[in-house]
Amino acid sequence: MAVGLVDILSSAQMAHHLSAARALISGHGACSVPGSGVVASPSGAATANAYLMHAQLTDDSYRVAAHPGLAVIPVAVAIAEDVWKNCHLSGDRFLRSVVAGYECAGALADRLLPTVSHRGWRVTSVIAPLAAAVTAAYLLSFDDATAISAIGLAAATAGGPLSVVATGGDGWRLQPALAVQSGIAAMLAAGAGLRSGTDSMGTEHGYLSHFGARDPRPTANRRPAVHDVTFKRYPVAMYGQSIFDALCTLDRITGEISRLRISLHPFAAQYGNQSQNSAGSISDVRSIAVAGLQSFHPGLTLPHSADRRWIEIDADPEMHPLNATLELTLADASHYATAGNGDTSHWGATDFTHRCGEHLGPRGRDIAALALALPAGAGLADLLHRWQKEAVIVG
Description:
single chain; 15 helices; two-stranded antiparallel ribbon
């Protein structure tokens, strides 16, 4: 929760991202979009804040490729702000809605990955409408029939091409926010009385078969998805965290590179080594490696090769999806070997507080303290009041 809010506030401090967020606001209401100067509708705030949360590629991840938080946290906060003055909303209900949204996103990602990606769909935009609808429906205490219709209607809007992460531009930033918007619209439509068709998700040519679900039945005894969410230290793709981590562990290297070999799990290697990847795209493993080399080893001279084929990518099925090994060879035959681990699912309160402080200083640490106090029964009002105050400060 705290990391997501801090990511939103951090992006809102950048003029170009704030301008885009303002453009996504539709309708007026009681909800905050940091820096916008607008009190927005729940749909407008959730959409704009989902964009801001994802804009710097610093938001959380699940199973390497999915970004569940952007479909859950902006929605939960917007709905909470909208209903706060008209009804009593407990911190427990708020947190349960967040967990429900993450569980929806995680359960779908578990069943769809990796097939959904192999079929050319971006998993975040496939699961985000449903996760957003579930988060809002739970928070608003929809009855079962209405909640099921919200999910079914959201499923009818799902999808988005994976190519946006490989071809440059800003489509990758915008696409998930629009998926969240469609999920909120589906939830509102269900609340107004629209109903989804019978078994609209499981039928032939339905959501599950279309996006490649491996098993139409839920997996028994799986642990809650929220426990397997991972968080980023660096503003690169989740599978790039291990590459940055590996390069960070090496002492400063100088000289001229002749070869870099990167070993990754096959899913990461394929996802980040698509044939249509443009140089500098967010999914390109070679671009991620170059960014890491320039960040941690500025004294290195990189080969002048447009295709960057001096970087070799090896798919190793024995590797953990969030690990990487690197072998670096210089022109003078010096050789360096290192390994990185991008798995942060074990993070605790200290890690979250540090992460929030890195991005927003003392304000970030204060937000972390308020969010971390919610499970202990602290007031949701304190967090919402601070959120609204921060929204004005950014402006």
